[in-house]
Design brief:
Layout (H helix, E strand, L loop, with lengths): L4 H16 L3 E2 L3 E2 L14 E2 L2 E2 L9 E3 L2 E5 L3 E2 L2 E2 L7 E5 L4 E7 L5 E9 L8 E6 L5 E3 L10 E9 L4 E8 L13 E10 L36 E3 L14 E4 L4 E5 L10 E4 L6 E8 L5 E10 L5 E11 L2 E10 L3 E10 L4 E8 L3 E2 L7 E2 L2 E9 L1
Parallel strand pairs: 1-10
Antiparallel strand pairs: 2-16, 3-4, 5-10, 6-9, 7-8, 9-16, 10-15, 11-14, 11-16, 12-13, 12-15, 17-19, 18-21, 19-20, 20-29, 21-26, 22-25, 22-29, 23-24, 23-26, 27-28
């Protein structure tokens, strides 16, 4: 039996409501229309500018937002997108948001790609509402030759339905209010905030969480050709790398996968791409006076990061060590260790690159030593 006219109209209205504003049921992977390939209706556009707040399926927008096509020209600049044919460009003071159906109390990491298009300062912040204050992403430094970087950001859900918000900052000194970053490939992943300890060498076990970095932000099936950047965070923030903090003022570390890079152990690792300006840190409970051994791998990601040597500084309150690795930029790693005596009931383990490196292909792509398979055992 077919639907009556009233029944068909009701079904269309329900579908339209779900398409425009209902909270998306959670699943690991891309957000609904997270690549913006579903365009606004032509009646909701003025050139590339989006006119209606709900014109983009599954998203709400405010301010100057453009739905752009790859290859479109703006003056002498050709706009490009990292995947597919469409993306969004966020003008000054603009916001995009999508409602998500999540589980209260769980931790999530959002990943998306962004590219700067202007010489002026661009400030991109992300948040969930309700939730903590927005976190600003350091998009001023470009880490790849393509101009596209993927960023991650994490949060703890305080409600079952939240709004994920991306905002391009307000600044009265900006020359062109329409100018701003291009964003694309929005995705989300549930984080296991207490991933299993790995690399234990004695019956006492590894004190570090997520020492192999297998738990981290979403990386699309098939990998990420440029990795995922993990921004700096204060100690109260949720980390996209459970167990670890990124300590810096405005620089990042790069989360890499075995699909596109060489990693020493498993399928994920961290590349220290910002030299002395950023440290990878984890704090654990220790017994003062206990004998501790910190083991770890240092290598290169097979991304043409050539340096002889490429050095990592490893430090705790009980001692420090500089580990040199001669990188040919083709992959490989060395295993090393730091023995020390715990000084306090809390011990911080710190890794940072002692130098600044770019790939040998003259593109200016930032790179650095890879850290992986870290374990701390005390007795």
């Amino acid at each position: 039996m077919g639907l009556s006219n009233n029944g068909a109209l009701f079904l269309l209205l329900v579908c339209a409501a779900a398409r425009a504003g209902a909270a998306a049921a959670f699943r690991d992977g891309p957000l609904l229309n997270g690549n913006f390939e579903q365009p606004p209706h032509r009646s909701q556009m003025n050139g590339s500018r989006v006119l209606g707040a709900h014109a983009i399926p599954y998203w709400t927008v405010t301010g100057f937002v453009e739905h752009i096509r790859s290859g479109a020209k703006e003056g002498d600049m050709v706009l490009a997108v990292p995947d597919g044919t469409h993306a969004l460009r966020l003008g000054t003071g603009s916001t995009i948001q999508q409602q998500l159906s999540v589980t209260r109390g769980k931790h999530y990491s959002v990943t998306f790609s962004a590219s700067r298009t202007c010489a002026q300062y661009e400030k991109l912040s992300v948040s969930v509402v309700p939730g903590d204050p927005p976190g600003e992403l350091p998009i001023q430094t470009v880490y790849t030759s393509s101009g596209w970087d993927s960023y991650s950001w994490a949060f703890k859900a305080t409600r079952g339905v939240v709004s994920f918000v991306v905002h391009h900052g307000d600044d009265d000194q900006l020359d062109d209010p329409a100018c701003g970053p291009i964003v694309d490939n929005m995705a989300i992943r549930t984080l296991n905030v207490d991933p299993p300890h790995v690399g234990a060498t004695t019956q006492h076990g590894n004190l570090l969480r997520n020492g192999d970095f297998e738990e981290g932000p979403y990386i699309a099936k098939g990998g990420s050709p440029w990795g995922v950047l993990v921004p700096p965070m204060n100690e109260d923030r949720v980390s996209p790398l459970p167990g670890w903090m990124v300590m810096a003022s405005s620089k990042v570390v790069k989360y890499i996968d075995a699909e596109h890079f060489r990693v020493p152990h498993g399928s994920r690792a961290v590349e220290l791409v910002a030299g002395l300006e950023v440290a990878l840190v984890q704090e654990v409970a220790t017994v003062p006076g206990s004998s501790c051994r910190l083991e770890f791998s240092v290598g290169d990601a097979a991304d043409r990061c050539t340096a002889a040597p490429m050095s990592v500084q490893v430090a705790t309150a009980g001692g420090s060590k500089t580990v040199a690795y001669n990188s040919a930029g083709t992959g490989g790693f060395a295993r090393d260790a730091l023995d020390f005596t715990a000084q306090h009931d809390r011990t911080r383990v710190v890794f940072y690159s002692t130098g600044y490196h770019t790939t040998s292909d003259s593109t200016g792509t930032l790179c650095g030593p890879v850290v992986d398979h870290v374990s701390l055992v005390c007795s």
